[in-house]
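To the structural biology subgroup,

Please find below the input and predicted structure for Transposase, which we are adding to the shared reference set this quarter. The sequence is reproduced verbatim from the submission form. If anyone notices a discrepancy with their own records, reply to this email rather than editing the shared folder directly, so we keep one authoritative version.
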Amino acid sequence: MNIISYHELRKISPQKAREVVRKVFEANNRNVSKTAKILGIARATVRRAVYDCLEDKSRRPKNSPKKLKSEFEDIIVEEAKRTGFRYRRLSTYLQKKYGLVISENTIKSVLKRNKVPKKTRKTKKGERSLYDYEALIPFSEFQLDTKHLLDKESLPKEVYEHMKNYRLPRYEWNMIDVATRTRFTAYSYELNSTFGFMFISIVALWLRVHNVRGRMKIRMDNGMEFCGGSERKLNEWNEIFEKLDLQLSPIPPKAKHLMGVIENTHRADDEYFLMIHAERC
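Predicted structure (tokenized):
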């Protein structure tokens, strides 16, 4: 017959293990040393089982001087639900917006403790890279796109209201070098092809002035702020920009995935600029 030791019984049920200690203790004339010897435990363990309660006491410390303040924890939970960020991006976001330096592990614990749900994104597996990045020459391949700042999909409601009330620019123009991720940005109140032509010209001239000599190719969509799908207009623009050794290359219809590099910058703008700084303007 196998006899279960005190330590094995304690793993099954701490309460039953202490009840056994009390029975042995009473059967041996309340002798602490003898009880400890029979059960193979320390005398202090016998005293705790006899004179304390049967349930385990909480191991939570009485004082936690480094514990995160409740108001900071409320901010973490609120911003996590509002933005959908997880611990890594949320740590950077809180530092930039509130000046709070909180470690990623602390934020992870707060989110887990408050059961903040994680937002998931569907991604397609097995897709090829847009470019051969190892062979890519700096300032040779660009992506060009615009962003409607009041699209009411990616920013909190209060940010949109602030931008409307203070009549901030409605449109953001972006051109990014794929190899170096160098980005050129401008803002406007209107969206038309005149501004599109001016933006491309300014960026191209700036690059040429700063000794960028190679041929440049700009990938863009078929929006009305550029060539709008017009073959005649595209040829006219390319003829003009050929003097700067620059070529415009529109993407095919319904091929927005080819603009993945510039689209990611829109998301970064939302998270690390507009969400934080728009209401300060």
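Summary notes: Residues 66 and 99 are 18 Å apart (CA to CA). The domain at 141-280 is CATH 3.30.420.10 (Nucleotidyltransferase; domain 5).

Regards,
Lab coordination
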